[in-house]
């Protein structure tokens, strides 16, 4: 999560939050390779940037692979100040207040434990009334992707 900055013509710059919404955030998260619940944040939620404001009026459908494919103003054409810098949260727990209680767990439910943030940690699986760990023999990125999708 943070202020969204883009690199264009040899410079890093920010994006104005005019028309900025969760569909734009979805494209940013996808472009960064992050899963989760995309949430657009406005009014320099993560602080004001410096340097040029490179994009304005970004209007993604949500299906694009990168911001460059979205409808937007021409590079550098904007009417904003850094108080309007756009931000994004790709946090899988954004907007959810659900806490999984042990009594709510069903067979095969996964959780992450012992991590520094909710999106990382030791993989644990609920089975036969208990939480257990997963052995790393044969563990690959594909297994991690399945866990992330399940979470």
Present the secondary structure layout.
Layout: E1 2-3, E2 5-8, E3 11-15, H1 22-31, E4 39-41, E5 53-55, E6 87-89, E7 110-113, E8 122-127, E9 130-133, H2 141-150
Parallel strand pairs: 3-5
Antiparallel strand pairs: 1-6, 2-3, 4-6, 7-8, 8-9
General form? elongated
CATH class of the largest domain: Alpha Beta
By secondary-structure content and strand pairing, the structural class works out as alpha+beta
Number of helices in the DSSP assignment: 2
Q: Largest sheet at a glance?
A: 3 strands, antiparallel
Give the strand line-up of the largest sheet. 1-6-4
Number of strands: 9
Output the helix-strand order. EEEHEEEEEEH
User: Which stretches are low in confidence, meaning pLDDT under 50 for 5 or more residues running?
Assistant: 94-103
Report the mean per-residue pLDDT as an integer.
Answer: 83
What share of residues is helical? 10-25%
Please identify which CATH superfamily of the largest domain we are dealing with. SRCR-like domain
Keywords: Disulfide bond, Glycoprotein, Repeat, Signal
Disulfide bonds: 16-80, 29-90, 60-70
Domain SRCR: 1-91, 110-151
InterPro entries: SRCR, SRCR-like_dom_sf
What this model shows, in words?
The protein has 2 domains: 88 residues, SRCR-like domain (Mac-2 Binding Protein, Roll), CATH 3.10.250.10; 42 residues, Mac-2 Binding Protein (Roll), CATH 3.10.250. Helices cover 13% and strands 23% of the residues. A hairpin with an 8-residue loop joins strand 7 and strand 8. The chain is elongated. About 7% of the residues have low confidence. One of its GO terms (cellular component) is membrane.
């Amino acid at each position: 999560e943070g202020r969204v900055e883009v690199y264009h013509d040899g410079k890093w710059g920010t994006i104005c939050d005019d028309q900025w919404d969760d569909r734009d955030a979805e494209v940013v998260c996808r472009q960064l390779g992050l899963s989760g619940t995309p949430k657009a944040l406005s009014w320099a939620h993560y602080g004001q940037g410096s340097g040029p404001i490179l994009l304005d009026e970004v209007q993604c459908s949500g299906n694009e692979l990168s911001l460059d494919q979205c409808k937007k103003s021409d590079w550098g054409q904007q009417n904003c100040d850094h108080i309007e810098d756009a931000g994004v949260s790709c946090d899988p727990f954004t907007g959810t207040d659900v806490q999984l209680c042990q009594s709510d767990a069903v067979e095969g439910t996964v959780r992450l434990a012992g991590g520094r943030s909710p999106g990382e940690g030791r993989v644990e699986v609920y089975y036969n009334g208990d939480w257990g760990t997963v052995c790393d023999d044969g563990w690959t990125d594909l297994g991690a992707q399945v866990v992330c999708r399940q979470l």
